[in-house]
Every structure is written in C-alpha cells, then in structure tokens.
Amino acid sequence: MIQFHDYPLSGNCFKVRFLLEQLGLEYQSILVDFYPGYEHKSPRFLNINPLGQLPAIMDKGQAVRDAQAILVYLAAAYDKSGKWFPRDHQGEVYQWLAFADQLTGSISAARLHDAMFYRLDVSKARTEGIKLLRIIDEHLWFAEKDGHDWLLPLPHPTIADVACLPYIALAEEGGIDLAPFFSVSRWMERFMRLEKFKPMPGMMPLQMPKETP
Amino acid sequence: MTSYVVALEKDVRDYSIVRSMMGDKPLVIWRGASGAINVWLDRCPHRSVRLSAGRNMGGYLEGVYHGWQFDESGKVTLVPALQGRPSHDISATVYSTAVADGFVWASVEECLPTGSGGEPCYPVHIAAPVDQVRLHVDSSVDHLTPWGVDGTMVYPTGDPAQRRAELSAIRRRLEES
Ligand SMILES: N[C@@H](CCC(=O)N[C@@H](CS)C(=O)NCC(=O)O)C(=O)O
Ligand code: FES
C-alpha cells in the first residue's frame, strides 16, 4: 500500500491527498508534526526525503518526493483514463507544475511567515505571489472566453489544476487579497465543487449548494 | 453621486458569489432566484464577517459564521440562534444597482450608468490611484473604479487581446513609476 507522509495544514500535501482520493487509491497516511514539532527535519524523515520537505510517498519500496513529481507519478502509474495527466498536453502540464512550485515559493512562504512565524521577506513574497496571480487570472479569463473551465483546454481538470489550487486558495492566510482576481475566484469555486473535494483547514469552509453555475 | 462599474454581468452567476470593491467599500454581489443582481456592503451586520464567505442559496444569502439568512432585499429573515425567527429590523447595507452594456453598476446613492464603447473585456487591477490612472486611459472606452485608496480596477471594452497588451503596458508604467 502507498505510504503518504502527510501534514494536514500543508497545501503541498493537499495536492497528493486530493489525487489519491480522486483515483480511489488505498493509502496509509503517516502524519508528520511539521509545526511546531519540525519532525520533517528528524533523522527518521530525512531518511525518506533528504530535503526535509513534505510531502513524500513510498510506493513499492521506492520513495518519491515533491508534490508535483508525486502527481505525475501517481497519474502515470494509476490513472487508466489518462485524464489527470493528458499525454498530448505535456508541455502545458509541466509548465503549470513548475508554476505551482513558484506559488509555493511565494504565497506559501507568506503564509508560513504569517501563520507559522517563519522569518523571511514577506513583502517580497507577497509581491511575487501577486505577480503570479495576475498571470494565472489572465490565463483563466482567456480560457473561459474560449469556453474552457480549467487551465488546460480540456473539459475536465488535470494535475495542473490540482498543483496550482491549494496555495491560491490559501493566499489570504498569507495576507494576499484574492478579491481582485475574478477569474481565479471562479476557477477555485469550480474546483471546490468537484466530487470528493474535501477542503483543508483555511480553505472555504462551507459546502456550496448543489446546483452548478 | 458617482456610479461605478463593479462587475461584468456574465460573471454574476446563480448560486455563486462575486467579491468586488467600490472605493473603500468591499462588496458582495450575488444573483438571487428572482434573477436580479444584488450589490451589498461585504459586511455581515451580525459580527462584521465578510458576507462573501457565506453562500448564495438562491432565495437567500447565508452568513458563514452563524447562519443568518438575508433575503434579496437585504432583510434578515432567519436567525438560527433565535430558534429560526426573523429579525426584520436588521439589514445588510444595500446599494443601488443597474445593469448596462454587460456591466454591473452600483452607487451609494441613485445608480445611473453611463454609456460605454463596446463589449466588456478583461478587467485589469492597477496598484495606482484612480486620478493617476485616468491620465492614461480613455474613460469613454474604459470604466474606472477606485479599489481601496491606492488601487484602481479598469473595466475596459474592445478587443481583449489588443486591450490586454495595451493595459499591461499602462500598468507597468504606473506601477514602476
Ligand atoms: N517542491 C516541493 C516543496 C515542498 C515544500 O516546500 N514543503 C513544505 C511543506 S508544505 C516543507 O516541507 N517545507 C520545509 C522546508 O522546506 O524546509 C514540493 O512541491 O513538494
Ligand atoms: S457574523 Fe454573520 S451570521 Fe454571525
């Protein structure tokens, strides 16, 4: 069974948990006390990921680290439909996966500063986060105009959406106001209406009414 | 009093909520079961929580915190803590609103939309006060709404691809100066 090293307040862990559940995979969740325990820097965990970062998984005796790498790994190995990782759109998929890691480096950093008292240049992190939000907001506006609901021009979400969602949905915990990003807000709402979507702490708490807009 | 564009009409969908700003006022915008669009101050009269964090149930808007229900006129029609009784003397702050040329307009007084130059396109937020932005855009084509004290939302019209490039350049110039 897949072992998933998980921390419920981590947006990067959210990505992995979301896909595991969408794919209906059985997994064992191993909780790592990230804050205040710093257990991701413990010898036990460094053995699994020498970078001391969450998330990581163990599958068939092999460790895979990095949320984006795990999304690709799981989708390639277990998604027979090919929908989550559409092979004929690989360039776009990788582009958004890299973008997602930049969201971690900016919005998530601002959130770690505000919520977990990390010491870093928070105004620089927010400025960078806003720059990224403008890019994705604009992309989504033009996608919607062409009749597409998701980052890729396909009638369903992919791992690109999964990778980009959590730190955007958590941006306000890092002091970044999402109100000016109209298209991003609509995309988040669509995502949160997906079947089996479970919000993590800090994401919109209420179940939306069933009717989809 | 001045009327402002606060959203694109097509973006205000059933069972959904739009957040916006009109000057220093945060807004919650929602389309009710009647089909009409409501523009309110985004503050719950109960504990000041954002109403936009709640949900649009069609016939009413529900506060996220304690489940207060507001009908389309802004009146509180149900308070769970009062065993479901209404509380008609409490109301959301409702603004006068109108729809014109695909834009949603609002005003703290009577809302009077002015004409515009065509199809709404991509709204652009600029981190510069509205007086400065006005020097760079043609306000017969683009509607300008102050967004907080030092920001502006530009609601342009015209060909999106072309306008996007133009407005990004203006934004860069204003934000970097
Ligand atoms: N590129 C990695 C970044 C993971 C990451 O930053 N994880 C955070 C928790 S959400 C972490 O473990 N930070 C501790 C550190 O970087 O030392 C990924 O996408 O998984
Ligand atoms: S704050 Fe709105 S219901 Fe209590």
UniProtKB/TrEMBL annotation, chain A:
It comes from the Bacteria. Residues 86-213 form the GST C-terminal domain. Residues 1-82 form the GST N-terminal domain. It holds the Pfam family GST_N_2. Coiled coil: none annotated. PANTHER family: GLUTATHIONE S-TRANSFERASE-RELATED (PTHR44051), HYPOTHETICAL GLUTATHIONE S-TRANSFERASE LIKE PROTEIN (PTHR44051:SF2). This is Glutathione S-transferase.
From TrEMBL, chain B:
The keyword Iron-sulfur applies. GO terms for molecular function: 2 iron, 2 sulfur cluster binding; metal ion binding; oxidoreductase activity. Residues 4-106 form the Rieske domain. Pfam families: Rieske. Keywords: 2Fe-2S, Iron, Iron-sulfur, Metal-binding, Oxidoreductase. PROSITE patterns: RIESKE (PS51296). SUPFAM superfamilies: ISP domain. This is Rieske-like 2Fe-2S protein.
